[in-house]
Amino acid sequence: MWRACLGNSDFRLFNRDEIMKIMSYIITHDYGFAPNPYGGFLTLATCKPKIRNSAKIGDILVGIGSSTGAYKNRLIYAAQVSDVVNMNEYFENPIYQVKKPSDENILRRKGDNIYYRENGTWTQLNNPFHDEGNMSHDLNSTNVLICKDFWYFGNKAPLLPENFLGIVKKGPGHKNINDHILVSSFLDWLAVYEKGIFGKPSSLENR
């Protein structure tokens, strides 16, 4: 039986007992696909397999603009993990169908719900962003991160205050921040903004 709701109904935004860590990384390509902020909740279903494999409910995902572009030290998005589901459930559960790529409109074309098992083999739906060459990397983790509470700034990304630059990951991979004071201060700063979508995807060659 599929779960009828997203995440844990007892989960409260910014309950400091629930928050475990910040997981920060650099976003080199922001097309609204990974992460995907559309359909009422943000998801990370492709790319970043190490993050998807280790993130827990309560963790804060933080995507920062590349140091070589116009969004250096700018917050592309932040999101709190409210659920972690397997790609099988993500593909089959009706509440996640909105995330499947579709030509219905430009936002649906960015759908990240692209993997399913057929006769024991992983198969990829046609989509504008990932092809078979991405499958091995994507499938290094079959976890999908679901985030009901999120801030997707995209091309409206605010500059991080200097006291939060310690959150920024230098280079590839990701960085875990467990400093309770730093995490709490960052969340207090973030809470000034309303949750939701602020801008369009920040990559200049947006598709």
Distance between the termini: 36 Å
Largest sheet: 6 strands, mixed
Provide the succession of SSEs.
EEHEEEHEEHEEEHE
User: What is the global morphology?
Assistant: globular
Structural description of this entry:
The protein has 207 residues and is an alpha+beta fold. Helices cover 13% and strands 23% of the residues. The protein has a 6-stranded mixed β-sheet, with helices on one face. Strands 2-8-5 form a 3-stranded antiparallel β-sheet. A hairpin with a 2-residue loop joins β6 (115-118) and β7 (121-124). The radius of gyration is 16 Å and the shape is globular. Residues 1-12 have low confidence and may be disordered.
Would you spell out the secondary-structure blueprint of this structure?
Layout: E1 22-27, E2 42-44, H1 49-54, E3 60-65, E4 75-80, E5 83-86, H2 87-92, E6 115-118, E7 121-124, H3 135-138, E8 143-147, E9 149-152, E10 174-177, H4 180-190, E11 196-197
Parallel strand pairs: 1-3, 9-11
Antiparallel strand pairs: 1-10, 2-8, 3-4, 4-9, 5-8, 6-7
Descriptive key words:
207 residues, 3-stranded antiparallel sheet, 23% strand, globular
Brief account:
The protein is 13% helix and 23% strand.
